[in-house]
Amino acid sequence: MNSQGQLRVPVVFVTNAGNILQHSKAQELSALLGCKVDADQVILSHSPMKLFSKYHEKRMLVSGQGPVLENARGLGFRNVVTMDELRMAFPLLDMVDLERRPKTTSPSLPSDKQFRTCWLAFPVLSRRAAGRCEPLPRNDFPRIEGVLLLGEPVRWETSLQLIMDVLLSNGSPGTSLATAPYPHLPVLASNMDLLWMAEAKMPRFGHGTFLLCLETIYQKVTGKDLRYEGLMGKPSILTYQYAEELLQRQAERRGWAAPIQKLYAVGDNPMSDVYGANLFHQYLQKATRDGAPELGAGDPRRQRPSASQSCVSILVCTGVYNPRDPQSTEPLLGGEEPPFHGHRDFCFSSGLMEASHVVKDVHEAVQLVFRKEGWAWE
């Protein structure tokens, strides 16, 4: 930082968190780091969904927790349905929890306005209240046109069931189709982390585990693979492209004459941080040599050509990676490959999980970057 407490070089904070608002994460980082972090320096797992404008006007079912409506609308989606709204409209779909099953049904159903008023007044309904707040008639509930998976939900069984109902009914849950439509409705998903590190001694389930459950159920029920129109968050190339674009904009605002050519990516997770940085490095090398390759699904628009030529991965030992138990990067006894914790749509490559540098913590990582670039450490 300079004497004014500002960061001396362009920096973005790329996190696979998604159940928080962008400006809230910026405030959290500002408090932790003791310097001002702007909201446009924070990239949440779902931030690249802003690029998927072709879906912004469609009626989308959103899964996650926390401020899901605010996040979806902040990404540009203007017609969003939450899991709770869908469950209230079709109470017979959510049947795992015996306490939440409807006891009776009534032919008298309220209007859309009455339903929403009732839902807002009683976000957590007792059985008695639920009897007064009847679900919407099916013909009053507009068809759902796609699914947004922003992060792990609280009630996995409810979300898994309702998402499957939407996909198998082509957006009209409560109906029954003779054959499941395929290709199914568009699905946009973010945060593929199978595991993440919290206060517990062992890693916790992440949204990648939820996606694995959904993919397995869909494949078992239909015999076909669940397909994504967009899959973002680390380690996707799209997320690193998005990060690079924000860094180049910061450099332009600082008046830097030349674009940034070398990126440094610091993280604690070999599968998301290191794998993603090395994958993006491969992409940049190929783009420099042959021109930018096609990304396929998850490439919603033509990005401006990457000015960067390399991305250096730096692994820190303060999170998922533990140098005393490096299961995620070292071969098992007998020469067996370690289990692949990455997403189904990413091929395993042990080389991509090998960091260019391994350091103790972020402080050492920053010192390393300054030495590499020949900058004075003040």
UniProtKB/TrEMBL annotation:
One of its GO terms (cellular component) is mitochondrion. SUPFAM superfamilies: HAD-like (SSF56784). It comes from the Eukaryota. InterPro entries: CDP-alcohol_PTase-I, HAD-like_sf, HAD-SF_hydro_IIA, HAD-SF_hydro_IIA_CECR5, HAD_sf. One of its GO terms (biological process) is glycerophospholipid biosynthetic process. This is Haloacid dehalogenase like hydrolase domain containing 5. It comes from Saimiri boliviensis boliviensis (Bolivian squirrel monkey). The gene is HDHD5.
